Amino acid sequence: MAIDNERTDLPVIDSSTQPFWEAAREGVLLIRRCNACNEAFFYPRPFCPSCWSPDVGWEAASGMGQVYTYSIVYSNDLPPFSGRLPYIAAVVDLDEGPRMMTNVVGCGVTDVHVGMRVTVAFEEETDEVTLPRFRPFGIPTELP
So where are the chain's domains? Predict the structure, then answer.
């Protein structure tokens, strides 16, 4: 998979994360779940961070969660972030349990709050990379 070397904000896709990125392109948020201890986790990795078992599988998450914490970024000189200012960097508690670093989109910086219900929205960055972001619950899940 070719990655745009000028886009330092894009993920590096490898064999352990490729299913996640392929699903995101299809509008599905995947998480991993341990078959030994049943712990759901994110970020994708080939072992359980709770019990260290390598017996893990993929499952589709509901895409629902709530804002655990956030920061409004007003200054970031690195491209492409400087063109997105201000933006909301957040940690979302997924309904399945894992926490996920992301951005909250589709609302003003004064509207976001801890505990706000959010739903996944996918942004196509390149032909290969579609990023899961979150927007307030009740707003369509696809971004223009």
Answer: 18-136
